[in-house]
Amino acid sequence: MKLRIPERFSGLPLVLAVTFFLGAFLVWPLAHVFVNAVRDPKGLTAVYLLNLFSNPAIVQAMGNSFLIAALVTAACTAVALPLAWLFARRDFMGKTLFSGALLLPMILPPFVSAVGMKILFARAGALSTLAMKLGLADGPVDWFGAFPLAGIVLLETLHLFPILYLNLVAALANIDPSLEEAAANLGASPGRVFRRVTLPLAAPGLFAGMVLIFVWSFTELGTPLVFGLRRVLPVMIYDGIAEIGTNPAAYAQVVFVLVIAALGFWVGKRLTARQRNVATLGRLSVGRQEKRLSPAGTLLAWLGIGSLLAVAVLPHLSVLLLAVSHRWFLTIVPEGWTLDFFSRALNADLTRGALVTSLGLSLAATLLDVLLGFGIAWLCVRRRAFGSDWLDTLAMLPLAVPGLVIAFGYLGAFGSTFRNTLLDPRFNPLLLLAAGYAIRRLPYMVRAAHAGLEQVSRTYEEAAANLGASPWRVIRRITLPLIAANLLAGGILCFSFSMLEVSDSLILAQTERFYPLTKAIYALMDGLDNGVNVAAALGTWAMAMLGCGLLWAGCILGKRVGQMFRAG
Amino acid sequence: MTPAAISIETLSKKFGAVTALDAVSLDIRPGELFFLLGPSGCGKTTLLRILAGLEKADSGRLLFDGRDIATLPPHERGAPMVFQNYALWPHLSVAENIAFGLVERKVARAEIATRVEDALKRVDMAGLGARSPGQLSGGQQQRVVLARALVLNPRLVLLDEPLSNLDAKLRHEMRDEIESLHARTDITFVYVTHDQVEALSLADRMAVMRGGRILGLGAPADLYHRPPNAFCAGFLGEANLFEAAIESGGAGATAAIRTPLGAWTATASVPVSGKARVMVRPEHLRPLGLPGSLPADPGDNVIEARVLRARMVGATIAVHLDAGGTPLRATLLNRLGTLPAALEGRTLRWAAAAAETILLAPDAP
Fold first, then answer.
1. Which residues contact B202 (CB under 8 A, 6 or more apart)?
2. Which residue in chain A is spatially nearest to B136 when comparing CA positions?
3. Alpha carbon distance B287, B303 (integer Å)
4. Per the CB < 8 Å rule, is A283 touching B85?
5. In chain A, which residue's Cα lies nearest the Cα of B105?
6. How many alpha carbons fall within 13 Å on the CB side of residue B72?
7. pLDDT score recorded for residue B364
8. Residues of chain B positioned with their CB less than 8 A from the CB of A194
9. Residues in B 33-62 with any Cβ partner in A closer than 8 A
10. Around Cβ A6, how many Cβ atoms within 10 Å?
């Protein structure tokens, strides 16, 4: 006789597997960090945590980090709010094209574009030379050398504003048009309608997006590293890696970062929960008719978006320029052009190894995520199985944990426990890198699968079961084919972002043999023999790959691409 | 005659290739409970939204109290609207929702409080001002929307299918409620619906619309009993329609006509000539010779028809007839003496009064 497991518990093996995976690669390293931050040989102590606030260097670093995060958040809001309003409420020629182009700035981690910008704005760079030629400056000016903070804020803003924009467009589109019409109808002028109805209704989405940007820029490691600003928390932590076994100060700093991030995530989640209540009141009355801009308005919109895009792709352009330039020193444009660096980037041992490593790791992480993500979403949406709520919460947790924290946790926990095994990042970081990549992208994958399952009516599956398909056959023949597009899009995003993952890669890969793409670019930057150019060429390859990936995912998901970057 | 509260003059509106309004002209009188009635897509909601300023007409004039307001933005129209889906702001409480328009009009705080309180009382919602709209039932939300409009003491209130989201019982309650709210004020109501029962039972006057045009305009009883055309006849209730050739008359009150059922006398509500259609409402077709039924009057149109089917539908019995190949419907009061089963298969004589046999103008294309 066949043993029948009650349906409610049929997902138990998967629940256990996911719990184990997340427990081992997320909870345990975090716990390790916490414990080490409050432990010394004699027992428990709060001295390291308290030291955070008495050490002037750390206090200054905290101040800088907060300042960067606040400025980036403010700048992103200033850019994204009018932009989102324009795209959510008005129609004009070229809108679709522009809305796609606005995602472009996301395709390169800011630290890679920082390489190009640094050269462009450096003492011997194009801008400095131009300023001298025009007589605007007496001697060479190192723009970002003098104001590294400005450079960091600029680059992170240009990189992150699309995320807030996507959040905001979704929030604005969710507002029932009749709510605004009713306000106008009762006597509110357009400005008053925006202030009294539109903004309050979009506020949860706005704040949640702002929180996301804040946490992201607060924990960003690559950009300040490239600009040489050591006095920010992430770089301080990075510098503390060398003495991870002996000095608990870095642990305390990581705990501080984690607390800030978790706090931000908690606030964001509460706000989006409120937004959902708001959005579900009543059904949408009519489709919104976006007002068409007048020719003058269209021109103005083009001008605004065009100049924003021009500034936003400047970093990417500078990377591209750097990759094809032969000798670019104290001239406005490079003296010569070459495609050599592209082939060198593909042929040198370090870079080719890095490409292969990154491809392999990203592929592994993506496959793992697709499997886990579909499993979790299926248990939650279709089975409402025992433990599925717990799974959902657990799978979303990585949103609140910065990559920096995870990587540091791996180094501490696995490095000390599994010395000289495949789980020791100093011995071989590949397994942990794959796990780290997978964990960081899991929430996006779960969301993609979740959305897919909710769009597909259950009756398709019930009909298949009714006609004699076993549960496994139903999944294989009906469910999977129907949500393949969602899984594919989620997978592409996982893959693309894993390829350009920064903090995990910089921290965990310690020997050149195991360098992934981003770490190789970082290593090349200071290298001799046109290392910067090769780094830029490698960055361009990565940019092309990621751009194609995003575009592809965008084509599959259409307008829903914004859902992947929601804050809560 | 009093000047019109709203004058609509040859108003036209197109959405792309679709004509929503086709040179509509209409006067609405002050204090009237006026209905715009028609099937979906007839342009009634577009007309209402143009009145509110939420859509702009392509051409034509729009006057409120003699003043041209076509270019006035929505917030300066002073024509509060009751939205079909209520459009209660979820981030504001019930009281704040009602106070919204008063705040925009910069009414003093203390006065706002008392007026909101009064408005809540007026719709039987006293004490519920602190609730959030999401905590209210559909009927309560409907009352709040009404209060939100009426608290402004407007000259004009616009209602867009206000009862379409309520179940049947609540709909009856709210119908009465709206009627009594209107009766207690001298506010002009313009009410859009696709439900002819709502319009027939509430309206002072109504316009029946189709394809962006007004096909019938008048008091409910007039339109019901003497519809100008087949569309109005069919939209306002059940109708037996058949072809008729006019032998004499047609421009005045009565006409002699030839129908497939014989030579009849009919009443012309609009001047017709030549070929036309004739309408008899099912409840105006009286059976003769049943226990308790009245004899035919002289001048009645009398036919012979067999009862194919009789079905009880509550207060009435719906009867399908065959009059020598022409299908007809009749509606009888449901009395113990006329059991449906006893009627089926019988051939009876039926009478329709000449005054209730109506000649219709041929339909507009």
1. B33, B35, B175, B178, B179, B191
2. A281
3. 10
4. yes
5. A187
6. 22
7. 55
8. none
9. 52-54
10. 8
Taking the C-alpha atoms of residue B15 and residue A215, their distance in angstroms, rounded to an integer, is 46
CA distance A206 to chain B (A): 15
Q: Do B52 and A186 touch (CB under 8 A)?
A: no
Q: Which one of B78, B87, B148 has the shortest CB-CB distance to A176?
A: B87
Helix (H) / strand (E) element for B28: namely strand B18-28
Q: What is the rounded distance in angstroms from the CA atom of residue B184 to the CA atom of residue A533?
A: 83
- Distance from the Cα of B140 to chain A's closest Cα (Å) equals 13
- Hey, what are B254's tokens? 């009565």
Q: Do B88 and A282 touch (CB under 8 A)?
A: yes
Scanning the structure block, which residue is given the tokens 């996911």? A18
Q: Return the bridge partners of B257, or none.
A: B246, B264
Q: Given CB atoms, is B87 within the 8 Å cutoff of chain A?
A: yes
SS (H, E, C) A113-167: HHHHHHHHHCCCCHHHHHHHHCCCCCCCCCHHHHCHHHHHHHHHHHHHHHHHHHH
**CA dist., res. A379 & res. A450, Å (int):** 10
Domain boundaries, chain B: 6-225, 230-360
What pTM was estimated for this model as a whole? 0.78
Mean predicted confidence (pLDDT) in A360-383: 90
Cβ of B250 under 8 Å from any chain A Cβ? no
Residue whose structure tokens are 């899984």: A487
Domains, chain A, ordered by start: 10-34+339-568 (1.10.3720.10)
Task: Reply yes or no on whether the pLDDT at A1 is more than 50.
Answer: no
- Which two structure tokens, joined as six digits, stand for A34? 């916490």
Is pLDDT at B83 greater than 80 in this prediction? Answer: yes
Shortest alpha-carbon distance between residue B216 and chain A (Å): 28
CATH class of B6-225: alpha beta
Host H or E run for residue A115:
helix A110-121
DSSP H or E stretch at residue B190: strand B188-193
B230-360: CATH number:
2.40.50.140
In this predicted model, what pLDDT tens digit does every residue of B278-303 receive, in sequence order? 999 999 999 988 877 788 888 899 99
Question: Shortest CA distance to A202 belongs to which of A170, A180, A179?
Answer: A170
CA distance A204 to A511: 44
Model confidence pLDDT, tens digit, residues A279-298: 444 444 445 667 888 889 89
Residue A266, φ and ψ in degrees, nearest 5: -60, -45
Could you give the CA distance from residue A141 to residue A232 in angstroms, rounded to a whole number? Answer: 24
Angle between helices A249-279 and A28-37 (to 10 degrees): 130
Distance CA A296, CA A299 (A): 5
* B81 touching A (Cβ < 8 Å): yes
What letters, b where the CB count within 10 A reaches 16 and e where it falls short, cover A237-267? bbebbeebeeebbbbbbbbbbbebbbebbeb
B83, A181: Cβ pair inside 8 Å? yes
Distance CA B148, CA B123 (A): 10
